[in-house]
Amino acid sequence: MLDVSSVTYPMAAIGDTVKVQVPEASNGRYMLAKVIALTANNLYKLGTEQGVLNQLYSRNQFTVCKERFMSPEDVPDAKKLCTSKCYDSASCSNK
User: Fold this and answer.
1) The domain over range 2-81 is classified in CATH as 3.40.1550.10
2) Are 48 and 54 within 8 A, CB to CB?
3) Which of 1, 49, 51, 65 is least buried, going by the fewest C-beta atoms within 10 A?
């Protein structure tokens, strides 16, 4: 099973531009992001032009783009972007 998964979803390299699905509440269905780190558990940390995403992603949760739409300088390190649907509400704990 792991062999089939690794063929279907090959490893992404740090610096690759990827397309990740965003919650229904956001504008558009997909967001461009940059792979900025790979954890020991083979989970990926992604960054966008708005900041670093809070969630870690497995390889099957995004698509690697052939083109490089973003440079590493486009991802600010300090800001975080929450992908939770409740982000705009006062009760959101992910801010």
Assistant:
1) no
2) no
3) 1
Map out the domains of the chain as residue ranges: 2-81
Q: How many alpha carbons lie under 13 Å from residue 88 in its C-beta half-sphere? A: 4
Q: What does 33-83 look like in DSSP terms, one character per residue? A: EEEEEE-TTS-EEEEETTEEEEEEE-GGGEEE-SS----GGGS-SS-EE--
The pTM of the full predicted model, rounded to 2 decimals, is 0.69
Separation between Cα atoms, residue 38 and residue 30, nearest integer Å: 21
CB 89 within 8 A of CB 95: no
Give the Cα separation of 5 and 77 in Å (integer).
31
